[in-house]
Specification:
Blueprint (H helix, E strand, L loop, with lengths): L2 H18 L3 H21 L2 H34 L2 H35 L6 H30 L4 E4 L4 E4 L2 H5 L2 H31 L4 H36 L1 H8 L11 E8 L4 E8 L2 H7 L9 H28 L5 H10 L3 H5 L13 H9 L5 H31 L6 H9 L3 H15 L4 E3 L3 E2 L9 H32 L5 H17 L13
Antiparallel strand pairs: 1-2, 3-4, 5-6
Amino acid sequence: MELDIVELSRLQFAMTAMYHFLFVPLTLGLSVIVAIMETVYVMTGRPIWRQMTKFWGLLFGINFVLGVATGITMEFQFGMNWSYYSHYVGDVFGAPLAIEGLMAFFLEATFVGLFFFGWDKLSKVAHMIVTWLVAIGSNFSALWILIANGWMQNPVGAQFNPETMRMEMTSFFDVVFNEVAQAKFVHTVSAGYVTAAVFVLGVSAWYLLKDRHVELARRSIAVASAFGLASALSVVVLGDESGYSASHTQKMKLAAIEGMWETHKAPAPFSAIGFPDKEARETHYKVEVPWVMGLIGTRSLTEEIPGINDLVAEAEEKIRSGLIAYDALMAIRAQRAETPEEVRATFEEHSGNLGFALLLKRYVDDPREATEAQIAQAADDTIPGVAPLFWAFRIMVGLGFGFIAVMLYFFYRASFRAMQFPRWALRGAVIIIPAPWIAAELGWFVAEYGRQPWTVDGVLPTALSVSHLGVADLLITLAGFVTFYTILFIIEMGLMLKYIRKGPFEDVEETNAWVERHEHRLRTHDGKGPFAANPAE
């Protein structure tokens, strides 16, 4: 096995996936925020809310188009770079992706057109429904993709067929309602909502600092802070659900995230900081918070969370069990219909660990010929990179709690301080605009890097999943993708900055007239309304 091919294939997919996910969270969240704004417009009839809908909808549209362009190439990579993976699990993995294309993407793409070109052709209520369908389509698209990804993390509802040498679906219901997939969906979507809320908050804060589009900016901050606060709280709560799910579906990932080498007496503590050392199998200078990891991982005070060393020993036992399954499988392949029933029974008994035997393919063509040292090395290979996972997770969590604090502050100022915001707070809102993207990328890093050495956890090793390509082929396509995606990213940034600087340019006269009338009403009353002008201005 040429490991350089595997690493280059992983690098290429990681690059394209992380580039693509620069666009996805903003699409998910901004579509819902725009739908909320248009709903307020339909309910109140105030033209400023229509102007807000059109302005933020334009930024959504730019992001949506470029997100589609970057997403298409990802699906082609399964056939180009990961052909054996596609052959081995395509019957299961392909189903949610096909549904995503047929149901969610067509729904989303169709109604995006109506959103932009239907303002003068549809009634207000009909256009609002279209906007909500765009938001629903965006989130449906994420649902089916995350169902596919969740199956890679926790392959339920499928089994290996020794006749076809492929994984085949046994329960579509189990695949769809896979606990990992559902936890990933709500967590990922909530993170997208936070991303959009921080984006709207930051851009609106910039307008207030420049004293431009003040009424639009204040209302946008009110929506973004309320929506963002609810979303940020959801991210933390639903992240806890992901941790609980990992405690019984991906134990090694959870132990690596915690840097827990030895099984700790229940309830396990959470290491706030530490320095994992894979060579010494120890985490140095740990600062622990008692009980927290046990509560997150098991939701009890009595259940243990196994450490990495115990999980390696368990993996070695599974490799030996998988070798029995592999030997029986070779007999079935050789004898076909004449295979004795006891051989098939032996295979069925040990087939759940077949993937662990395939880890030996990295070292020997026939796993049955593996030495004791190779078996021990294959068991050690089940340990992912502990230090990167440890710190990526903590940075992501720290940012998550930071978003709660930011949204809570702006929600308080918008709700109880007449939408008056200190300039230092507005500058801070602008500065943190990139932060949710960093958190989202770290989240995907933890999810995918923590699954290694598996493409499908416990079923198919990454080293076996790649296509038979040359190093030159991968280097050329990698360079091409980097160039193409970088150009798209520059285009995205250029267009977004152009229209942010330009500001809302539609319905200007009607909106300005309404704002003047509104301010006059405030002045002629007590002047204490939520949108009253600041006397110091």
